[in-house]
Amino acid sequence: MKYLLLVHHNEDRFNTMPEGTRKDMLAESIQLCHQLDSKGQYIHASPLQPEATGSVVQVREGKEIVTDGPFMETREQLAGYFLVDVENQEEAIRIAERVPGARIGTVEVRPLVEIAGLPNSREA
Asked: What is the DSSP string of 61-100?
């Protein structure tokens, strides 16, 4: 089953951490991806650009509304994700515990809904 691990942390706090610490966390994340890949669990992972680079798109009554970031008044922002394929939620949680961002923020573990007929879906 596929799970999305959403990594949230405080951008301002992260950006004030020593550069060496940030580089170490990235290297640790890359190493985790390679470990997951060797077990056939890795699908994709990536950090996200800062929240201020994003946009929010809404359609209301046929009218598009596009708002530039930052767009959420929260202490933590979505910083990145891991997409994994594991046996169950417990296994996904064990992986989330190893994500470096979990030490400075939170990792939300969400199962994906598999929909037949999508590109690259198991059922055509």
From this structure: TTEEEEEESP----SSEEEEEEEEE-SSHHHHHHHHTT-G
